[in-house]
Amino acid sequence: MQSINAEIADQASGWPLAQRALAERDPSGKCESIAQLWQSIEDDDWRPDDPGPGAVVPCGRPAQPELVEPGAVPRRGLGSLEGRVALIHAVAHIEFNAINLALDAALRFSGQPAVFYRDWLSVAADEARHFQMLESRLVQLGHAYGDFPAHNGLWEMAEKTAHDVLIRMALVPRVLEARGLDVTPGMITKLEQAGDQPTVACLERILEEEVRHVEIGSTWFKYHCHQRGLEPESTFSELLDRYFSGGLRGPFNIEARLKAGFSEQEMHRLAGA
Known about the structure:
Layout: H1 2-13, H2 15-23, H3 27-42, H4 81-108, H5 114-140, H6 153-160, H7 165-193, H8 197-227, H9 232-243, H10 254-259, H11 264-270
Helix pairs in contact: 1-2, 2-3, 2-4, 3-5, 4-5, 4-7, 5-8, 6-7, 7-8
């Protein structure tokens, strides 16, 4: 009887549910599946381990927002309500993509230590909560996710790094997601000046938790460097040169990046010192 129950629990809360969450197009359904999945892990009903090759499924997303080139996304000041709503929408879109990125990392890269899968499923659960917070704030302001155009840069980088877990860990959490650590404090300051404390509270919570997400990326990037006999700092620098020929522009949140696993040498390199 115990083995039958275990099999039922695995089908209800294991990798099939993670696959369903990644494939789900409806944001609410995606977040609900992730919450169910993470609850099963916290309750010790399921312990994620290697899903094996071929577990990844196509990424699901809604028909809206319309996806446009980054330069085509309108820029609005935060002094107006419309500008603040557009900002909230943009961050919500980043968080939605981050849900899919975390699920894809857990499903795509077989042969990893068990903690790798738990780490990325925990990130997916956090990102789903972040998305729901921002989506609720949009509703409070009379809008919904999908009301504004957005770009697809995060997921495009996921596709470019799908062939190598080391490159994925370097360029998605440690470059694209780490940009959130850099730019969010400035957003918070401007929103405080505009008197939008509810949105400030959302972004403060997200910033605090994103440090751990980038740190997870740093941990697994360094792990795979050591597995391959590569020096992490020089490898990261080489990957930046290969994929970001123009370099990364500051300002950089040095304190947050150091907490997230960047070294002093890496920060000097990023700052152009």
